[in-house]
Write a structure and sequence with these properties.
By secondary structure, the protein is mainly beta. Helices cover 8% and strands 37% of the residues.
Amino acid sequence: MKWRRLQILRVCAAGAVFLAGMGLGAAPGAGAQRWAGAPGAPAGQAGGPPFQPITVVSTGPTMSGGIYLGGLPVQGDWVGYTLGNTGCGHCQPYVHTIRLRNMLTTREISIHAATFDPYLDQVQGATGIQFAGPYLLWHQPGAVANPRYQAGSFACSLCLYDIRTGQGGPVPALQGPAGAIQDQLVPVALGPIYTQPETWRALLLANGPDFSRPAQLYTANLRTGETRPLPADIPLGGSVVAAVAWGPLVAWAISAYPAPGRLFVYNESADRARQIAPTLGAFNGLQSSGYGGDLFWSGADNALYRWRATTDTVEPLPGRASNFVVSSGDHLAWEETPISSPHPPTLKVMELSSGVVILQTPLGGPGADGKVVNGPIAGLADDKISLLSEDERPDGPPSDQRLSVAWLLDPHPAFARLWGLADAGIAAGHVARSWLWGPRPRFLANEAYVEAGDGAGKHLVEYFDKARMEINNPNGDLNDPSFVTNGLLTVEMVSGAIQTGNSSALPATVPCTIPVVGDPRPDNPLTPGYTTFAAVASLHGEHQAADRRGQPVADAIDVNGAVSTDAPHGALARYAAFVPQTGHNIPDVFWTYLTGMNQEYGLNWQLVLGYPISEGYWTQMRVGGHDYPVLVQLYQRRVLTYVPDFAPLWRIQQGNVGQHYLEWRYTLNGGRP
C-alpha cells in the first residue's frame, strides 16, 4: 500500500484536524507506554488489546464518486463528520450535510446546510464548521432570490445548533461591529470561557470585500450576542490559518506568504496580544488543563512544542510531526513519519499530564471489521479517537471513504480470564475444537446501559467473533460467575431494537438482514437474515412451541421466512429437551454440546447462550463458494449451528453473532450517507 497523505485543515476549539491513522502491532519506541496494539494478544494480557477501530460511516464503493467525507472533533460521546461534493473542476468540496453520531446510543443528528447549485461556477456550501461541547456553529449561504439556491435545515447564514435541545438557527442578536456584517462571518474557533462554563464564545473571521481590505477577527459571546474586534493585525493578502479560544485566552496564527507564519496569544483580562512563536510549520489549538489553556504547535522543523499558560514557558515535546490533534482534556495524538520509506508512519497518543504514551501503533492495518484504516485523525477525546480512511485506486478516485472510531480504554482483566477458560488452549494449538469466543478481541468500547452498577449510565464491553462480553457492575464481586455477562445480541438483531438498558431501547434505522450463518450476504444470497426469524422467534412470549421431545427436527426456513418440512434432514436430529422459560425445544445435537459445557469450560450454558428463542430450523448456507445444509437455532445471546457435512470436531459451532452485531450497530445503522 502506498502511504498517501490525506491533508486536511480544520480549525476548532479543541484543536485542528491533521493527518494520522492506525494499524496493528506494537511499534518500537522510547518512553513509558501503557499499551500498544500487539497483534493477537487477548485483552488483559501483555501488550493489551489490538487497536482496531470500527467503521461508523462509509460512502461505499458505489457512492464515493463526487462524495467527500470529512471529520469533525470528538466531543464527549459524539463523533461528527461532514459530507460534500465538488461542482466544478477547480472548486474545493462544498459541504451540504453535517452529521453527529452518539457512540453510546447510536443516536444520529443530520443537518442539511444551505447551498448554491453545485453546477454554478461559484460553488458554495457550509464553511467554518465548528463542533465544541454542546454546540455546532457554521456559516452557509444566506437565502437569496435565486432558483439555484437550496435551503438548508435552518434559515440562517451564521448558524448555531444545540445538541442538548435540538434547536438551531441564527446566533441570537449579534451586537457590536460584527453585527452589521454577520452574513460575512465565518467561524474559525469555538470554546467556553472556563470561569463561566455556560458562557460560550466563538472566533469569527470576516474577509474584506473582494479581499481588497485586510480580514478582521472577532470574538462573539454566543449567549449575549456581544462581539468585539481582536487586534489580529492581519496584513492584506494574509490569512488566519488557525485560531482557538479557551479559558480567558484567544490565540491565532497568521500566514502571509512568503513570510513565515506567526503565533499570537491574547488575554482578554489584560486586553493584550503578544507574539509567542515567529515561525510555524502547523498550528494546533488550546489545551484545557482546568486552570487555563496550553498551546501546542509544530515548528518549521516539525518538532512539537507546548506553551504552558501558567508559567509562560515554551517546551519541546517528544516526537516530530506536522500532523497532530489535541483533545479538550489530557491527550495529544500525532503521526510520526519514518525517515526511511516505505515503512508506514506510526500513530502515537500521549497523556499530557503524565507524559505516558498510551498508544503506539503503525498506521495502515485492518480495523475491527476488516476495513483498512490509514488516517488521517478526524477527532480526539480522552477516551476515543476517530480517523478518516479511503481505499486507494491507482486508476481513479477512491472506491470507499470511511470514518472509523476506536476507544482509548484499558480492557478489564476479567475479559481475558473468561476468554482463557475456553479459547486459550485453541489459540495455543493445544486443543482442537471450535471457538467459543474467537481468537482475539475485535473491539473495546463503552456503550449505553441505564442500570450500570456504578451509576455511569454506560458499561464496558468487548466484542469477539462469537459474542460480546460486558461488565454491568464494575463494583461487583469478581468471583461471581455473572460478573462478566453476554449481551442479548441475537434478540436485538431479530427485533431491530438496540438496547440502552434492561427496559430501554432505540429503534434501529436499518434492520439486520445479515445472514445468521455462512459468508456475508453478497456471497451468501439464500441464507435467512436475523430479521427473517422475527416471524418464528419468541421475543416477548410469542411463537412458543409445545413440548416436542423425541420428535424429529424437520422444520426448514428459507431466506424469505417461508417455513416448510425437510424430512430427509429431519432424520438427522431429534428434540431432546424442552425449555419452559421461552417455550422452545433443543435438538439433541445441541443438547449434548450444551450440557457438556460445564465440564469442558467450567461455564453454565445458560449464562453463555441464554435460552433458545426459536426452534431448530434447517436452511442453506454458502461458505467459500460451497453450499451446505445447516441446522440453526437462535438463542438470546448466541446462535448455534450444526453442519452434518463438516468434520466431526467442527459440525457444531457458535455463529458469528459478535461480528454481525458489530457491523449492524455501528456500520449499517447510520453508516452510509
